[in-house]
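Re: folding output
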Amino acid sequence: MICQHLLRPVPISMMAVSEVQQWKNRLEEHLRACTSFWLKHSVDTEHGGYYNNLDRDGSVYDTKKHVWLQGRQVWTMSRLYMERVELQTDEYYAAIKQGAEFLMKHGPAPGNRVYFCLSEAGEPVKLQRKIFSECFYVMALSEYARVVKHRGDEGVADTIYAEAVDQYQHICAFMQDLSLVGQESFAGADASHSLSMPMIMLNVICELRCYSGDPKFEDDQAQRCLQEIKLHIHLDREMVLETVKPDGSFLDTPEGRLLNPGHAIEAAWFIIDYNRRYGGNDVELQALALKMMTWSYKLGWDQTYGGIYYFLDASGRSPEQLEWPMKLWWVHNEAMVAMLMAYVETKDEAYWQRFVEVAEWTLKRFVDDGSQVIPETVSSSTVQPGAGSWFGYLDRQGKVSQCFKGGPYKGFFHVPRCLHVCSKLLEELLAAK
């Protein structure tokens, strides 16, 4: 994500300054409230780590700790510490430190793996046949190392960062042979390539570079990630496909027809962010990323109720995923970042209008202000408003589906990352006023 030292002024008209400032103030307020909610309710001072299964009011409904969310929270809190002076306090640092120590002590599993889920005290519960726990473990350690270095202990920071790089090398090996993480290959299965792995690895490489300061760290791998992402961009269809054949050609199955607009939009802004930081402002690469987000936003936007669909089928069939028409928090967070970043880069008013459109829809429905209609099946004892955090799951009409604020897949990550990155992008605009 955007590093503080990479901010740069972007000209805007004087007439737009007040609107940009209002948006910045608004998002900053939501970020403070969100951060306060998670600091108050998620930090486990007895066992270490963070509770991520939080109900609407912040109460813990399940003490299990999902490691990829532990890593995400360490990364997010560390990034906020590094880029927000008001959070550079001993109390806030202690909340990061205990989470990072819990993660480093209990996260690693045999075979150079990282567990997916732990008990409250850190005992193993589940190991997935995927690499995402490992990826967020690396990101967490890399950013936490920056915090430790900032506080004056460079030797310890270097050791933590070395562990992050070592785990990164294991992830690279897993990507070459997924049987190492337990994924079997069967004779009758379609050979395929997934968008998720190259895009997360590009993100991981960028984060590792933040500590090392080396803009060419793992450059060959970064270029491979970009080339693999391009396999999923079908110019003829004006679509970004989640799964393709290994050569990038269309796979005419439910898996191959699957569109995940939020994922494609996130991949697009990862590419733009990479290009801003390390790509030398490659015009062709930026143009491709802008196509990705524009196509995906237009296809994904629900013309009847607003918001972005979770899944779609490229041929217009019914997606197999029963949750396909739902509106999820992270999809809208990624769209906010992407559209604002596109506006900063292009000055094209269409991207600003899309940012405003998706941000207004998102803030009205996901932020818990006490006005939302709660499903009748939910017990009245669990529906007390929890000011400061967001719901994650809405039905197609935009009504709350699940009341909890955190679960196995939702923690302190997408919302604060979105609000922080958008705030920094708005800061770039204001710096040129």
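--- second protein (sequence, then structure) ---
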Amino acid sequence: MKYSWSFILLILLLTALIPSVDGGIFGWLSDSCGLNPIATDRVALEKQLGNVHIDSGTCKPVGIVAQPIALSVVSMAIVDHFVDENPKKPLVFNFFGSSGIGKTFMETHLRSQLYSGTDKDGNGEATLTISGVYYRENTADNPEKLKQLQERLRREVIRQVRKCPNSMIVLVEVHFMAPGVLTALVDLLGFRQPISLPGYGEVDFRKTVFVMISNHGYDELQDRVTHLLQTKDRAALTYSDFSPLLKSITSSALDEWLVFKNRVDYYIPFIPMMYNELETYANVLLKAHECARQKENPNMKLFWDESLVKWIASQHIPENTLFAEGGLAPVINTLTVDVYTPLRMYIITNFKSKYDKIAVTLSVSGEGHDRQLLIRHTQGSKSDL
């Protein structure tokens, strides 16, 4: 049977249009700046975000460590937002808590999972990161300067959303922004329908996700967690346990109009890390280091025991406290900048006076560089070191 070219073209055109009128996840999501189907599957998204493992290509840790509240609430909110073909407004998060406990890691991993075409750091056409450091100026006596900063921020956001309506826009270190700068976004975060903006045409902000990250609220969160731990484990803490104090904590870092106008949908607390969390991540980082070394030398092996992991974690918990000072960051710095220094310190600290009972073997080879490290309990003598 022969078909005319016009008939074939008509069939192809109809095939292309079917997803658009379907309205399901293969509908408007199929033409949405590379949004992945996982954006509409809460179980899959939460599982993928929480899957802590070593990326075989980069040898970097992947997955959210010890922040179950953030993991659960963010996954739920993201999926609810993207399955809605006509969301009422942009989805706006505020990630807050001390530095080094996973806020930036969370948004980076989230971007890389949600959008196709992003790199391992979550950068791509559908994402934009704005640093509050570049809006850190003294505008107290200079209203014209404040207006310039506000206009610049609006331009960045509008251009991104015009290019990709379902973008993720991340504003990091918003606590550094000059007071009043974020006021420029109050109206954009509240629009319930596409709007016409001079010089830009029609722009629809409703499908956009905003993440505002700030390093504040540590003392309040630590006090709250300390109180809650009297009756439950850290892993059993829930979002509702923190709801009474969320707005009061964040209002000190965000523009008061964002809070007053209810532009922020979810205030996500990143709770302080404890010993067990540091121990878990120290073990992950040692595996990442082994992965990197094996790329240089496939025969390289790193052996360590549980006592090493416990020792590394203990170095970052101040005496007589429950929480890690600086979160995961000090452990990351310890085990990624120069892994062998802390391992040698571990040997000296734990085994210097115990040669008659236990020994640690350090094997060095290859152009003066440490190529192999064996940390194993064995019977030996001082000459084994």
